[in-house]
Design brief:
Helix content: 25-40%
Largest sheet: 5 strands, antiparallel
Bound molecules: flavin-adenine dinucleotide
Shape: globular
Radius of gyration: 23 Å
Number of helices: 17
Number of domains: 4
């Protein structure tokens, strides 16, 4: 890699397209504006950009050559996987100078039963990886609502979390090896996935969560787990967020690793989902301030006893007055229906009207107290606003939505109240020792918030790393750093 590249500016867009076309061939370079247009707006519809073309390399070699060309001609590059990110990270700016680079053709998956790993092209879709692992009696233990679109490269680049972090950790914990193409076009092969390897820095960790600003991920080796032989999905009604945490501790101490997911939602989120999904049913009779959705799993050895263990844990929880009601899914269809209630909260909340959404974390032990404190803080100034905190209580991470009163105009409300409310939330999160981005990343959405709230020393280190790897600032400009 050269320290500082000398950029020959492209004489014209035509020069660039001619050379890019030679590298990528017909299938690999899209120049028709109508074909590019669907990829220029982010998932949440908050950002729309422009691109000079859409590149779709077929393999690492093409990816390397196209990045070398961009480096030589000074063309910015925005990597995009499934475009399911929540912070506008995969959307180029509006100038039309950037090349949008999609990994979707690099989607091969090779499962190795012997090492219990899968080697995936960056564009492999999460759901397809789940199916490939299941076909060989294994599983990839990371799942999230966008699994039908999110790609392995995107999951790595955002260090995604999801609903199984409690037991298996975030993407960072599941990556065994990585291949990355640098801005210069050089290929950095970190796929050896040795159990022990002390040759200095763990370079792959630097690229995980770097949102396409340090290199473009081309291949990923992920660690698989044994298939689940049985699972029990439970919904419980709970009096308070504090009780939800106590219930989680109770389940963990009784069943240790069997508790794979622990999600919470308030009654208002369930109401929104039931309005949004006409065929969905309330899981419990009556209304409860909070609900916990729990998933317990067992492999072959533990499968025979899982059901009895879960029943006992719930009976004990009743006796300890941690839950007011609970139901265990009777079959897989009902288990999926329970998860659907959880996974539909985001679209259901969005249908209610304008909201400021915050993906935040604080230390796990403080989360219940934080939810109460932040609700009180927002209501003190905005008593007519709804505060809904839902999600991954077990990870100290909730999605905190502050919803405008019905009938509010989105732009006016965001300008006059929403932005100030978000600033208040992020200040509180920082004061409580938390993070303004738990699992969605920074993208363009939180760039300013990161600058305003993060440790200046940490920011300076990040900028130095960026400058070393991408001296001309061509990789995903305007995002993260
Ligand atoms: C319904 C729904 C539910 C979700 N739930 C969760 C959740 O529970 N937890 C969670 O963590 N996320 C969640 N997400 C967010 C999303 O799925 C993740 O951010 C995902 O990791 C992004 O993958 P992607 O392939 O769509 O990436 P994109 O959106 O295409 O890109 C995301 C970022 O990664 C960069 N990037 C993409 N591919 C590469 C590559 N090969 N090399 C370098 N950079 C790259 C992009 O430039 C961008 O900065 C959810 C999304 C949806 C739609």
């Amino acid at each position: 890699m050269t320290e500082h590249s000398t950029i020959e500016r492209a004489n014209s867009q035509d020069d660039f397209l001619e050379e890019a076309g030679r590298i990528l061939g017909k299938k690999g370079l899209v120049t028709d504006a109508d074909d590019i247009e669907p990829w220029l707006t982010d998932w949440r519809g908050r950002y729309t950009g422009a691109a000079r073309a859409l590149a779709q390399p077929a393999d690492t070699k093409e990816l390397s050559e196209i990045l070398a060309l961009c480096s030589r001609l000074g063309v910015p590059v925005v990597a995009q996987g499934g475009n399911s990110g929540m912070v506008g990270g995969a959307t180029p700016d509006g100038t039309g100078t950037a090349l949008l680079l999609s990994t979707r053709r690099m989607n091969a998956i090779q499962v190795d039963a012997d090492t219990m790993t899968a080697t995936c092209g960056a564009g492999a879709v999460l759901q397809t990886l789940h199916e490939a692992a299941e076909a060989q009696d294994m599983r990839f233990p990371l799942s999230l609502g966008g699994k039908g679109s999110a790609t392995v490269g995107g999951l790595v680049s955002t260090n995604a979390g999801g609903t199984q972090v409690l037991r298996h950790g975030v993407m960072r914990a599941l990556v065994a090896g990585l291949e990355v193409v640098l801005a210069s076009g050089d290929v950095l092969d970190l796929t050896s996935h040795l159990k022990k390897d002390n040759r200095g820095f763990d370079l792959k960790q630097m690229f995980i969560g770097s949102e396409g600003t340090l290199g473009v991920v081309s291949r990923v080796v992920v660690q698989l787990s044994p298939a689940v032989a049985d699972r029990r999905v439970v919904i419980a009604g709970i009096a308070s967020a504090q009780d939800a945490r106590r219930l989680m501790q109770h389940c963990q101490s009784a069943m240790a690793d069997a508790l794979e997911g622990f999600e919470i939602m308030p009654q208002s989120c369930l109401d929104a989902v039931l309005d949004y999904l006409p065929d969905a049913q309330a899981p419990l009779e009556g209304r409860h301030p909070w609900y916990a959705l729990m998933e317990f799993v067992a492999d072959k050895e533990g499968a025979d006893t899982l059901g009895d263990q879960v029943e006992k844990v719930l009976m004990d929880a009743f006796e300890a007055e941690l839950v007011s009601d609970a139901v265990i899914a009777a079959n897989e269809t009902q288990a999926e229906a329970f998860w659907q209630l959880r996974e539909t909260i985001s679209p259901a909340e969005r249908a209610k009207g304008p909201a400021m959404q915050h993906d935040i974390s604080v230390p796990v032990s403080k989360m219940p107290e934080f939810i109460d404190a932040i609700t009180e803080l927002v209501h003190a100034e905005h008593p007519d606003h709804e505060v809904a905190a839902f999600g991954h209580l077990g990870d100290g991470n909730v999605h905190l939505h502050v919803i405008a009163p019905p009938g509010s105009d989105t732009r006016t409300w965001e300008r006059e109240k929403g932005k100030a409310i978000s600033a208040q939330v992020y200040r509180a999160v920082t004061d409580w020792g938390g993070s303004i981005s738990a699992e969605h990343g920074i993208g363009q959405d939180k760039l300013q918030v990161l600058r305003d709230t993060y440790d200046p020393v940490a920011l300076s280190v990040m900028r130095k790393v960026k400058a070393a790897l991408d001296p001309d600032g061509l990789l995903n400009p305007g995002k993260l750093v």
